[in-house]
Design a protein that fits this description.
21% strand; alpha/beta
Length: 135
């Protein structure tokens, strides 16, 4: 019986070491919590801004985050600033942007809105929009 316990312990140790050695998929881009002064300052500087209306419980938002992560991993030199509006806790900004729901994305070049989408998760569409302001 003691050899069985030893084998179980050994198997558990191997499993744990494999789990903890897996790469952690950290975000490859900075997400800035939305606030109006930051948004206004970035617009005044003519920066490129992606406003992401996000909810933690939203599966579409999570898919969008993966696509955005893939974009910024493939384009580490991108200067796009990502401002995240919390759909549940920042209702005044959800209304300000007239977001029909969570998973709304707004792309600005300075003060000009150049793209808008709701629930878009297709990589080609999101990459195309971001590339159109990054070039």
């Amino acid at each position: 019986m003691s050899s069985f316990k030893s084998i179980k312990r050994f198997a558990a140790a191997i499993t744990a070491s494999l789990i903890f050695s897996l790469p952690v998929h950290a975000s490859s881009f900075d997400k800035i919590p939305f606030d109006k002064p930051t948004f206004d300052q970035l617009q005044a500087k003519g920066e490129t801004i992606l406003v992401d209306i996000y909810a933690t419980w939203c599966p579409t938002c999570k898919k969008q985050q993966q696509v955005l992560n893939d974009y910024f991993t493939a384009h580490p030199q991108s200067n796009i600033k990502v401002l995240v509006v919390d759909f549940d806790d920042q209702k005044e900004w959800v209304k300000y942007f007239k977001a029909p729901r969570q998973s709304s994305l707004y792309l600005f070049k300075g003060k000009d809105q150049v793209w808008f989408s709701v629930a878009e998760t297709r990589e080609q569409k999101i990459f195309s929009a971001l590339n159109s302001v990054s070039m």
